[in-house]
TrEMBL record:
Pfam families: Hpt
One GO term of the biological process aspect: phosphorelay signal transduction system
Domain HPt per the UniProt entry, residue ranges: 19-115
InterPro entries: HPT_dom_sf (IPR036641), Sig_transdc_His_kin_Hpt_dom (IPR008207)
This protein's record includes keyword Phosphoprotein: yes
Single GO MF descriptor: protein kinase activity
Coiled-coil regions listed: none
Protein's UniProt name: Sensor histidine kinase
Amino acid sequence: MTGLQHLDIEALEELRDVMEDEFDCLIETFITDADKKLVALKAAIEANDPSEIGKVSHSFKGSCSNIGAPYLSDLCKISEDKGRNEDTTDIDVLYEQIKDEYHQVKNLLSEQLSQ
């Protein structure tokens, strides 16, 4: 994935410094929450509910941005915009991109635990 940044390591290191002993809990909470958001996004897409697609994507985007996952945040922003504009064209393809990127991020974040 040339030019794409799965994780902003500098931002993660800042979070580690600020959170100290709670850093692992933060990562685990993000992963648990993101797993739920991915399920909710898929359900909204299957229900063809653009409003819910926008809401879930907005929330997911914020979480990704806060944890330092810029490309995943960008994908969620695209999904959010599609939902708000009631444009579900190729939303299944976008969902697959979000899901694939999330799994990359999840694996990389898991490697950051207890370091």
